[in-house]
Amino acid sequence: MKSTHTPLMISCLIGFLLFPSCKKKEPEFDATGTFEAVETIISAEANGTLKTFDIQEGQQLAAGQLVGYIDSVQLYLKKRQLESQAKAVLGKKPSVNTQLAALQSQLHTAQRERVRIQNLLKDDAVPAKQLDDINAQIDLISKQIAAQRSTLDLSVSSIDKDVQPIEVQMLQIEDQLQKSKIVNPIAGTVLTKYAEANEMASIGKPLYKIADLSSLILRVYISGDQLPLIKLNQQVKVFTDDGNGGFKETKGTITWINDKAEFTPKTIQSKNERANQVYAVKVLVKNDGSYKIGMYGEIKLN
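-> structure tokens emitted (302 positions)
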């Protein structure tokens, strides 16, 4: 008697064999890693109270943007004091032309007198001794002017040297005043804020952390047998979860390849899981806003 269960069993067996082929196959990736950014910690460059510090985490800042300032009243008063000192020292500087004006006038008078005597001497109206006397007088006044000018020049030079240290101190104070302003150095997004307004700041104290998120770095690890397959500036495919069970694909550029091998990180799997050592690789990915620091990503070599 022929069994009626045979066709049913055959159908079940065929369905069981076909089931794996119908299951959605996960794409194979060459390396896996996480996204990171170049983070910069901005620190205070002056001591004092944070009078203004109005930034928020997640805020976009432009390069050169003023985000706050540290109390600088004492520095300003010190600068005013130095300006007064410099003015007082410079006030002692003699006026060379004024000091020599009287001697210059005597010299001009003597020179005019010599011309008059020379004219009279042509007509034998005066003795020759008068010309000798006036020439001696002109020579004496000229030497007096030279000696006085030398003395005055030394005095001016000495005063200029006395005021130079004060001017240097003024430049130092001006530099400290500029550093009292908190100026954001790079364009980016504020990741972490470490201080608040009215808190005390000191030189080197972290104020906030910023990073440019327009491009992120996907740090992945490859095994030694994959190393010949990659090179700098190579284009690769980058995949991330799209939130619907699939993958979002974009392009990335290899910007750095570590020249030294390291042990496989516990949280990272390379293509060859049996490899004991791997090489770190940085892939630059343009961020459309969907990539976040710490997000997992995979690459496939072209």
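Residues 188 and 213 are 6 Å apart (CA to CA).
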